[in-house]
Known about the structure:
The radius of gyration is 14 Å and the shape is elongated. By secondary structure, the protein is mainly alpha-helical. It is built from three helices and no strands. The longest helix has 26 residues. It has one domain.
Amino acid sequence: MSKVASKPPDKGFTFSLYPMLTFVPRLSVNSLQNEKHNKARKSQLLVGVAMLLFLFGLAY
């Protein structure tokens, strides 16, 4: 993480956020296929938001 922090913020954010941007939609699609409930969708969204906030916390 020290290397990412020493680099310019743009590169660090793109490299750290790109896997998340591809990972969160996969989670939401899987949850929609498994069980079509609003609770499942909300929980997946909360998990995605929590992961993004965690990444932002690590970046700063």
